[in-house]
């Protein structure tokens, strides 16, 4: 069977299974969504947000891109962030990276891949910020793992620098921003314990005041 047909067949089986468990499953979802979590993850096909967290449709609002980046000029990311924080009022924003990330690996090398090089440039900036620590790791796999972690930490930091997050902290003490890393080899998610819930941990240059009312 052609793969796209297998997907449609898979969908039918999935619908039947859901209805078997709960005849109102789709009727309830169709009424609306109120997810408590925004997930910013990698596009990698092996890291599906709902599946690895044992959550169902309706529980996680998802944004995925190559190497789970928070690029402050990315209108797509900013729109997802603003909508989930200011309209859906999510309580947690999770940046989840993963060991073995092809984007991070590519950023560590000097090979050209095309347009994506511009995206990966942001990861090279993370490397440069932590160059002393990273260059001191002799084992290449260990250095790769550490860059995956540091990249997640910097994206958590970049989220905290946005006016969207800082205004939400000021007005309703939410959401908490977390940094996680998923292991492809074990399936286990590691919490990097770099959660931010206020701008006080940010260097003053990134702290912004409440907007002027005109
Ligand atoms: Co990846």
Molecular structure report:
It is a single chain. The chain has a five-stranded mixed sheet. The model has no long low-confidence stretch (mean pLDDT 96). Strand 1 (37-42), helix 3 (49-53) and strand 2 form a beta-alpha-beta unit. Helix content is 47%, strand content 14%. The chain has two domains: 1-32, no CATH class; 34-199, 3-Layer(aba) Sandwich (Beta-carbonic Anhydrase, Chain A), CATH 3.40.1050. The protein starts with a helix and ends in a 23-residue tail after the last strand. It has 214 residues and is of the alpha/beta class. The chain is globular. Residues 42, 44, 67, 98, 101-103 line the site of cobalt (II) ion. Cobalt (II) ion (CO) is lined by residues 42, 44, 67, 98, 101-103.
Label this structure with key terms.
globular; 214 residues; binds cobalt (II) ion; alpha/beta; single chain; Beta-carbonic Anhydrase, Chain A; 2 domains
Question: How many independent structural domains?
Answer: 2
- Strand line-up in the sheet with most strands: 2-1-3-4-5
Q: Count all strands and give the number.
A: 5
Q: Compute the gyration radius: what is it?
A: 19 Å
Strand content: 5-15%
CATH-derived architecture of the largest domain: 3-Layer(aba) Sandwich
Short description:
The protein is α/β, with parallel strands linked by helices.
What's the topology here?
Blueprint: H1 3-21, H2 25-30, E1 37-42, H3 49-53, E2 60-65, H4 75-86, E3 92-98, H5 102-108, H6 116-129, H7 131-135, H8 140-161, H9 163-172, E4 176-182, E5 189-191
Parallel strand pairs: 1-2, 1-3, 3-4
Antiparallel strand pairs: 4-5
Helix pairs in contact: 5-6
Bound molecules: cobalt (II) ion.
């Amino acid at each position: 069977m052609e793969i796209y047909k297998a997907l449609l067949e898979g969908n039918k089986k999935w619908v039947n299974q859901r209805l078997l468990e709960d005849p109102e499953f789709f009727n309830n979802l169709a009424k609306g969504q109120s997810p408590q979590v925004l997930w910013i993850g990698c596009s990698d096909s092996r890291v599906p947000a709902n599946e690895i967290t044992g959550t169902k449709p309706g529980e996680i609002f998802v944004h995925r891109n190559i190497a789970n980046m928070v690029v402050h000029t990315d209108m797509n990311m900013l729109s997802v962030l603003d909508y989930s924080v200011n309209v859906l009022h999510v309580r947690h924003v999770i940046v989840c990276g993963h060991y073995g990330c092809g984007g991070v690996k590519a950023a560590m090398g000097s090979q050209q891949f095309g347009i994506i090089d511009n995206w990966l440039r942001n990861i090279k900036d993370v490397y440069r910020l932590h160059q002393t620590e990273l260059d001191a790791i002799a084992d290449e796999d260990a250095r790769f793992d550490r860059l995956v972690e540091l990249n997640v930490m910097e994206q958590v930091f970049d989220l905290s620098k946005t006016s969207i997050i800082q205004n939400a902290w000021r007005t309703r003490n939410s959401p908490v921003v977390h940094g996680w890393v998923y292991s492809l080899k074990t399936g286990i998610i590691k919490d990097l314990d770099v959660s931010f819930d206020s701008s006080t941990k940010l260097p003053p240059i990134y702290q912004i005041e409440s907007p002027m009312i005109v």
